[in-house]
Design goal:
By secondary structure, this protein is α/β, with parallel strands linked by helices. Helices cover 34% and strands 31% of the residues. A 6-stranded mixed β-sheet has the order 6-7-8-3-9-10, sandwiched between helices. A 4-stranded antiparallel β-sheet has the order 2-1-4-5, covered by helices on one side. Strand 9 and strand 10 form a beta hairpin. Helix 6 packs parallel to helix 7. It starts with a strand and ends with a strand.
Length: 259
């Protein structure tokens, strides 16, 4: 079943186009990664889908419903968004921060069932011992897990993640990605993730979308997207692509012309 469909979407500032004619769909229980160099439009695309930004054109449907016809709270019941990091200052505890994810369903007042959902999410992510800690005092990896927990308790069918492994060491990168992929399969959600690391994307993604200068250059499974030709064209890098544990592995060799 198709969870989310994006058709002919375009966005720009003034006379500058960031991306145009972007179309794709994602099925339930699928994790799809958006890859591409800086400035390709990855993060902007996610923000347009989440209605943080308003597209110039195009249509987004989630489970057959037109997202543009939804009110903000209904969007929040439909899509959950995990930013790269939190620019907001959360002086609240981890428990209170995660509980914010229940707001689209209950308003400002929580009940016992909502608090149970928070504890379930904290335990699922293995951070229940941090419940009374102040969010701003946590490490980057811990904060990222809290933001994922907050998205999880929203109980949405679609999850958007903007570089969830940015600024994390390799252990925490794998930890977060194992967690996200597990949630996608367990909860049967559709997840769209912007990510820089091609090998991390290849290891965990069911599908990939490769972008350059606001346009989709390649789309499909990791093997069909991560070819030496695509990497050279999009990144300006000569690369060797081999297979390890049935997953494509990219080894950069040298810079070519500037992409």
């Amino acid at each position: 079943m198709v969870k989310i469909q994006v058709k002919d979407m375009a966005f720009g500032y003034s006379n500058v186009n960031i991306f145009e004619n972007v179309s794709f769909d994602i099925r339930a229980s699928s994790l799809v990664s958006i890859v591409g160099p800086n400035g390709a439009g990855k993060s902007t695309l996610l923000k347009c889908i989440d209605r943080i930004l308003s597209p110039r054109a195009g249509n987004i449907t989630v489970e057959g419903k037109d997202l543009s016809q939804m009110k903000r709270l209904e969007v929040a019941r439909t899509l959950s968004y995990v930013p790269q990091s939190s620019n907001r200052v959360f002086s609240s505890t981890v428990f209170e921060t995660v509980l914010m994810g229940r707001r689209p369903h209950l308003g400002w007042f929580s009940g016992e069932k909502d608090e149970e959902r928070v504890w379930e999410a904290l335990e699922r992510l293995g951070i229940e011992d941090l419940a009374l800690c102040i969010f701003n005092e946590l490490s980057g990896g811990q904060q990222q897990k809290v933001l994922i927990a907050r998205a999880l308790v929203q109980d949405t069918g679609v999850m958007l993640l903007d570089e969830p492994t940015s600024n994390l060491d390799i252990w925490h990168q794998l930890d977060v990605m194992e967690l996200v992929r597990g949630l996608v399969k367990e909860k049967k959600v559709a997840a769209l993730m912007a990510v820089h690391d091609l090998n991390l994307a290849a290891k965990y993604s069911d599908g990939m979308i490769m972008m350059k200068q606001g346009k989709i250059v390649a789309m499909g499974d990791p093997f069909s997207v991560l070819t030496p030709e695509n990497i050279a064209s999009v990144y300006g890098v000569e690369a060797s692509v081999s297979t390890h544990a049935e997953v494509p592995y990219v080894l950069p060799l040298k810079q070519l012309e500037v992409a």
